[in-house]
Amino acid sequence: MRSASGPQPEPPACCNRTGSPRGPGAVTSLHPSAPAPDAIALDALTAFGRFAASRGWVPATAGNFSVRLDADHAVVTRSGIDKGNVGAGDVAVVPLAGPIPAGMSAETPLHLARYRAGAHVGAVVHVHTLAATVLSRADEARGAVRFAGFEMQKALAGVATHESVVELPIFANDQDTVALAERIEARLAGGANVPGYLLAGHGLYAWGATMSDARRHLEGLEFLLACTLEERRLAR
Amino acid sequence: MRSASGPQPEPPACCNRTGSPRGPGAVTSLHPSAPAPDAIALDALTAFGRFAASRGWVPATAGNFSVRLDADHAVVTRSGIDKGNVGAGDVAVVPLAGPIPAGMSAETPLHLARYRAGAHVGAVVHVHTLAATVLSRADEARGAVRFAGFEMQKALAGVATHESVVELPIFANDQDTVALAERIEARLAGGANVPGYLLAGHGLYAWGATMSDARRHLEGLEFLLACTLEERRLAR
Amino acid sequence: MRSASGPQPEPPACCNRTGSPRGPGAVTSLHPSAPAPDAIALDALTAFGRFAASRGWVPATAGNFSVRLDADHAVVTRSGIDKGNVGAGDVAVVPLAGPIPAGMSAETPLHLARYRAGAHVGAVVHVHTLAATVLSRADEARGAVRFAGFEMQKALAGVATHESVVELPIFANDQDTVALAERIEARLAGGANVPGYLLAGHGLYAWGATMSDARRHLEGLEFLLACTLEERRLAR
Amino acid sequence: MRSASGPQPEPPACCNRTGSPRGPGAVTSLHPSAPAPDAIALDALTAFGRFAASRGWVPATAGNFSVRLDADHAVVTRSGIDKGNVGAGDVAVVPLAGPIPAGMSAETPLHLARYRAGAHVGAVVHVHTLAATVLSRADEARGAVRFAGFEMQKALAGVATHESVVELPIFANDQDTVALAERIEARLAGGANVPGYLLAGHGLYAWGATMSDARRHLEGLEFLLACTLEERRLAR
To answer: Chain A closest CA to D196's CA: distance in Å?
Structure first.
C-alpha cells in the first residue's frame, strides 16, 4: 500500500505544473506528454477517498484510486498520502503506456493495465477491507470466491437476476506488480466478466465505466464478501 | 436493487414539472393524474436516506423508500440513485394502481401493494443489511425468523411486552415483483401482524403509519436480527 | 423502550412552563413541586444522546437518560423521542418520589430508584447494545457477567487495578418496572459495587456522580461486554 | 486508562502558563525546565484523538498520546480527559527523565521510555481496541501475535514485502508502569523491530518518527489484528 518512498510532501520533478496546453480540452500539461488532471477527475478521486475513509477501507494510507483522463492517460493517487483527504497535490497524471512518475504507488501498473484493456474501463478503485482480506486468503487455493442467490449480485454491470453465479477471481499477491498485472489481464481476457478481483492477503479491486459505476461495483462486491464471511462463520 | 435501466441523470418524460394544481393542497402536478411530491414527503425521504447511508444499509445504490402522498399516490425513490443524498430529482409520484413511470426500481410494485393494503400504511422502507441478508437465507426454508424475549420487540406497533413471540416472514426472492407482491400480500392478509418482512438473499422491508414509525420498525427489526445472528454464532 | 403512548409532539399538561421560581437556583417551575430543568442538565442529556446515537446504541427510539436536578428531582428523557436529537421539549422534571408525569418511559421508575439510593448517583443512562443484549440472555441464569484481567475495569469508580474481578449483575426483565426496581435496589444495597447492571434481553444501565462518570462507566462496561462476547466466540 | 486522580478540570500547579521564553523556538515555559507545547504538537494530538474517537478506540477516556518536543521533553495527554476533544488544557510538557507532573496518566512512563530509546521515536500512541484486547489475552502465553502474508505488513517502517513475518510483542500488564517500561525496553532493545506492542488485556501501543508514521503503524497493526481475529474465528 506504501511504495518504498513513503509520503511525498513535494510533488516529484516529473509533475511540476509546466508545459503547454494540448488535447481536446486544452488543459495544462503536467507531464511532458500528459494533459493536467481536470477538476472533475480530482473531485471524483477526492469524493471516493472521503467515502472509503469513512468506511475504514483505506487504513494506514492503504488503497489507491484512479480515473481515466483520455485514451492515453489516467489520473492516479500518489503513494503514502491520506486517502481520506485527497488534494490537488496528491494525484498525478500517468500515461497508460508508462513511464510511471516517481512517488506513485507500487500498484500503479495494475491500474494502467486495466485501462489498456479497453475504453469500458473509466475508473479503478482499490481498498483494503477485512472481508476481502480474510476471504482472499481463505479461498486463494480455489482461485475465486463464489456468490449465488444474492440480490446484490445485480449491482454488477450485466447481472440482471439473483439467479446467477458470480465468481470473483483471486490472484496470488506479488510485489512485482508488472508481472502480476500481466497474469491478471491474461485471466480477465479469458472470459471473467466480473468488474473486480481480489489479491490474496491484500485487498479488493473494482472498476467501471465511470467512478459511480466503479464505486457501485466495489460496494456491491464488499457487501457480498461480508455476507459470505458471515455465512462461513455460521456454517463451520 | 438496480433496475435494468441504471442511474437516471434526467427525469423521465412522465415527470416533467408541468400540469395544473389539483387536490386539497393545490400542489403542482407531475404526472397526468398525480399531485407533486410535497416538501414534507421529500424531506422525509432525504432524511431517512441520509440515516440509512450512515449505517451502511444502502450499499451500491441498493434500497428504496416511499411515503404515501394521498389515498391514491405515493412518492418513491428512483432507481440507481445514491440513497444517501436524495434530492428533488431523485423521487417520483407513482399512482398506487399504476402505471409505474420509467426509471423506477423494479421493486416499486412491492411498495404500491403495501399502500393498497390500507390507510395504516403511510411509509415503506427497504434496506440491505448484513444480518437481514444472512438470516433471510439461513431461515428461508422455515419461512420466518422468530424472536422471543427481547425488550426490542416493543418497538413494533401493537407489541406491549417482551413476553411475546414475533415472527418476521421470509419470502423467496423473485425478479417478477408483481407476482412476488401478490404472494406477499396474500400471506400478510392472512394474519401476519409484524410491520416488516424479509426477501431471501435480498433484504428487509418495513412500514408504518408515518416515516417515523416505519424507521422505528426497521431499526427495531434490524437490531433483533443482529442479536439473533450473534446468538446463532454462539450457539453453533 | 417505548411506552404505550408513543412519540409526544406536545408536552403533556404537567409540564407547561408555568409556575413560580423556587429553590436555590430560582429556576422556573414546570411541575407543581418541581424546579425547571436547567440548561446544564439539558445540555448533558443532549450531548449524551448524540454520542449514543452515533454509536448505534439507541436504535428505534430505545434508551433513556437522566440527570439529578436536586435532592428530590431528576430530569428524564421522555418516551418515544429520537434519542440522538434531544431538545427542550423532550425532557421532563420528575420528582424522585413520584408521581411520574404522563409521556415518560415505562422505565422511569428504574431511574428514580437509583437516585433515591443516595446522593452519589447524579446521572443514569440506559442503552441497547448488541453485546449487552446477547450476554444478558446468555448469562441470565448465572445472574451476572464476570470480568477479570482487563485494564478497562479501571474505568469503573473504585477499581484501581486489572487484578480485580468485576461482576455485572443481570436481572430478569419485567414490564412491571416498579417491582423490578425494588428487586434491583435490594440486590444493589446488598453489596454490589459495580456502577451498572443488565436487564436480560433488554440492555445496559450505568450511573455515576456526574454525567461524565456515568458515560465513562457505560463505555467501559460496553467495551468489557464486547470483548467478552468476542472471547466467547473464540472459546466455543 | 484512568489514573487514580480522575478528570482534571484545572491544570495542576506544575503547568501554570508562566516562565520565560527559552530554546530555539523561544516558546513560553510551562514547567521550570520545559518549553511550552507548541501549536504543532497540540494540533497533532488533537487530530489524532479525534480520529481515534471516531473509530471507537478510546472508550471511557482510555488511551493516551504524545509527541516529542525536543531532545529532552514530550507533550503528553493528561489523564481522565475526553480523548476525542483534546484542548490546550488537556496536555502537559513532561521531561523525558521525569519527574512526571501531577494529573498525568499512570502510563506516562511507557511513553517516556520509548522517547529515551532514541531520536527515531517522535510520537507514541496508545488505544484500546477490541481486536488488540482479545488477541493480547489469547496469545499472552506465546508472547507475541504473528502476522505473515499480509500486504498490510508493508505499512510498518522497514517492511518491503508481504513475504515477511511480523511478530508483535505482548507484555503482561502491570500497574507498576516504571517496572513494566523497563521490561518492555529491555526486550525491544534486544532486537524487536516492529513499531508497536501489546499489553495483555490492555491495548495497543505504536510509535514512529512523526505522528503520521505512528498513526500509520497503529492503523496497520490494528488492521492486521482484526484480520487475524477473524481468521481465528473461521479456523476454530
So the answer is: 14
